[in-house]
């Protein structure tokens, strides 16, 4: 048997958590559970060795604030810089970190320098190490982050376009 993936589930509803944990364990994953985002974040940052963290949507909205409080409490004089790959979640994370005074950069995944090995074995863990390395080496270029108004207009136009294609 190969290495088993270690997953942290952050979910406060015990019924939902039990259901998810049961399914993951049936698929032979090692699963640990936290009922609150602050403890879950602590477990991740302190090196719990997780291959993946599943954070339910209600917690993910508060993650920038929780991370900010955790970092300032445990590393009061440090400088922080957040970098993440653009994706389906848009730019709200960027805006939240900016409001908190934390430098943040959104990058295009295709623009991140990668070794052949990193391209072959893609995972969140490898991607996060790659982002940290390239940020430290100053090799990342941020993408343009549109204003909230421009983003809302883009999304509205996409909805209208999709409806037009569907019904006309």
Characterise the protein shown here.
With 168 residues, the protein is of the alpha/beta class. It has two domains: 1-77, Rossmann fold, CATH 3.40.50.2300; 79-168, no CATH class. The chain has eight helices and five strands; from the N terminus they run E-H-E-H-E-H-H-E-H-E-H-H-H. A three-stranded parallel β-sheet has the order 2-1-3. A two-stranded parallel sheet has the order 4-5. Helix 2 packs across helix 4.
What is this entry, summarized?
The chain has eight helices and five strands, in the order E-H-E-H-E-H-H-E-H-E-H-H-H.
Can you give the helix content as a percent range?
A: 40-55%
Elements, N to C (H/E): EHEHEHHEHEHHH
Kindly, what is the distance between the CA atoms of the first and last residues, rounded to a whole number of angstroms?
53 Å
The stretches of 5 or more residues where confidence is low (pLDDT under 50) are none
Rg value: 19 Å
Taken as a percent bin, the fraction of beta residues is 5-15%
Features:
globular; 2 domains; two-stranded parallel ribbon; 5 strands; Rossmann fold; 3-stranded parallel sheet; alpha/beta; 50% helix; single chain; 168 residues
Topology summary:
Layout: E1 6-10, H1 14-26, E2 30-34, H2 37-45, E3 52-55, H3 57-60, H4 63-74, E4 81-85, H5 92-99, E5 103-107, H6 116-120, H7 124-136, H8 148-167
Parallel strand pairs: 1-2, 1-3, 4-5
Helix pairs in contact: 2-4
């Amino acid at each position: 048997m190969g290495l088993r993936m270690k997953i942290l589930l952050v979910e406060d509803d015990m019924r939902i958590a039990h259901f998810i944990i049961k399914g993951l364990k049936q698929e032979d994953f090692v699963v640990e559970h936290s009922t609150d985002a602050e403890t879950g974040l602590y477990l991740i940052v302190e090196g719990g060795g997780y291959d993946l963290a599943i954070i339910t949507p209600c917690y993910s909205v508060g993650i920038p604030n929780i991370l900010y409080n955790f970092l300032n409490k445990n590393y009061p004089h440090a400088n922080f810089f957040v970098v993440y790959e653009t994706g389906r979640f848009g730019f709200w994370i960027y805006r939240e970190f900016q409001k908190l005074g934390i430098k943040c950069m959104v990058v295009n995944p295709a623009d991140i320098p990668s070794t052949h090995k990193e391209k072959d074995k893609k995972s969140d863990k490898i991607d996060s190490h790659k982002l940290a390395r390239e940020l430290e080496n100053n090799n990342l270029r941020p993408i343009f982050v549109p204003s909230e108004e421009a983003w809302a207009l883009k999304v509205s136009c996409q909805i209208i376009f999709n409806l037009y294609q569907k019904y006309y």
